[in-house]
Specification:
heterodimer, A: mainly alpha, two-stranded antiparallel sheet, globular, B: alpha/beta, Rossmann fold, 9 helices, 10 strands, 22% strand
Chain lengths: 418, 263
Amino acid sequence: MNRHTYLLPWFVAAAVVLVLPYVFSSGAAITMMSLMGFAIIFALSFNMLLGQTGMLSFGHAVYYGLGGFMTAHALNVIGAGKWPIPLPVLPLVGGLTGLSFAILFGWVSTKRAGTAFSMISLGIGELVAACSLILRGFFGGEGGVSTSRTATLRLFGISFGPQIQVYYLIAAWCLLCMAAMYAFTRTPLGRMCNAVRDNPERAEFVGYSTQMVRFIAFCVSGFFAGVAGGLAAIHYEIVTSSVVGAVPSGYVLLMAYIGGVAFFIGPIIGAVLMTLLQISLSDYTGAWQLYVGVMFVLVVMYAPWGLGGLLLMHGPLLSAGTFRRVLPAYALVAVPAAMLFVGGVLLVETSHHLLVKATEGPAMRLFGVSYEANSPIVWIAILVLLVVGGLILKRVSPRVSEAFHGARQAALNKRVSA
Amino acid sequence: MSTNTGTTLATPALQLIDVHKNFGATPIIRGLNLEVRQGERHAVIGPNGAGKSTTFHLVSGRFPVSSGQILLKGESINGLPPYMINRRGLSRSFQVTNIFPRLSVFENIRCGVLWSLGYKYSFWHLVERAREARERSEAILEQINLSARRDVPAGVLSYAEQRALEIGITIAGGADVIMLDEPTAGMSRSETEHAVALIRKVSEGKTLVIVEHDMSVVFDLADRISVLVYGQVIATDTPQRIRGNPAVQEAYLGAHAEEPDHA
């Protein structure tokens, strides 16, 4: 095998990132892909803690948000003073800010692991969120800090005014950070992060201070969160105090967990999916956050390895050619799943219409069908879909796991005999 | 990894002087004195609850002592955290298997190797490129007979395999004082024989301290034996003399009248 084959996925990723704006060329799509870029960096940086080192942080947006604020201030200073600094290096300001605050806060919080660490991170998150409302000079009060990305030194005539140029800037940083964070997992410290996650006690008895491992991981993670925040500041050209709060801290946890924290690729999947849902779903329904919440609960309960884990589970089946065996079972389970989905969406949307949009009257449209939200037929249909769908799902779901385990066993047997 | 620089063969590998350990008001270790010579295989035996595992925890830094001195190769290690003691050349195993369950067998061993090769907290080396770490880990896998299970997650190994891995992680860093806490507990007769051969092999040229309940293992392996009863060492001597010691027989071996006779 060629010793450079490990570079192949990165070339593919770079090619995809280059071509994407030509495939999805609308302004909305390019904006959404820009959001995905820094969401990926943020989610991966969070997973350095949760998935790699076993540290659950409830205040990761602190490093993201402070990185964003400092980048916005730096942009304003550079613009006002006409300093010869080009825009592409500015996310570094965010990164170094994230790193500095991670050193400061991490020094305290990484003295403890487990629940104590989580509680300290929550406390620091609340502390910074409270400061953001008090220190108006730095955080800009209610209005936040506005900036302009075009006032920096132009290189090769690129103004970074058009969104497509910002997309490529974000994409380049995203690739760079992804590669760096992946490489981190392959270093001695990265491996010891996993060891500390698995068994902190034993790690101490092979010569490693678990506190030091946690601390360095925390600092590196803070750096990348800061880079993501810096890119967000460049993209939006405004940073408000909500970015350091509990909402984005919880959001990054959802992204990483729904994607799957046990795999490097998991948070990438989570970030892409959640950004997609946030942007596109919010166009269709005011209850989109409810769907995200339900999805999170379902993943936690039924797919603890995340969506990435579900996908990767099928890798051995695909390579051994036994994937076909699970398809009938999947098709079978798709029927009650679709019933539950339609019933659930009907329930949420109809209730939402009745409760939130009561003034508009009972007439509404869903799935291209117009109906009256207060009609008993609709509610009977919802009940039937949910109950019957649930009962069928209960009956057929053992077949899915049977089929999957059969196919996996067949795949294993093939590999052994090969 | 520390070496013997500055110490002579006369310096004990490990010395415990009047060590006390209380848990709350309960004294567990009550004035324990123990001396382990360099290069010997030293067994610690005693009835349940005598404080053998606690002694291991005190020496390896898992618990602090309440009073007394612990010297490793002549230097005090009182109050040092486990990782500092490990870096000074003392490595221990655990009575209850204590491995990295989600890492592969190979990675478990490599975690034990990294610090001693000077990688420390490096995030500027790629671990796959660390040839010496790989070779040393593979050599240890060979020694503990787990090469065939190299890429399996350690959590799915059989019990006996996990015990072997436990020993492998313990010796991986090249420590010259090895402490094994009941390495054959729960093993079948043939597994025990295999484990004893392994322990003999990996402790070659090193100092070994072993806690063990299986008397045939103890008398087979140990150069000297210390008998621990109620937090004190009541005798330290060669296996032959320990067997003949009336105080030991009364306190401990009396309960083992069916003890196999080793010629």
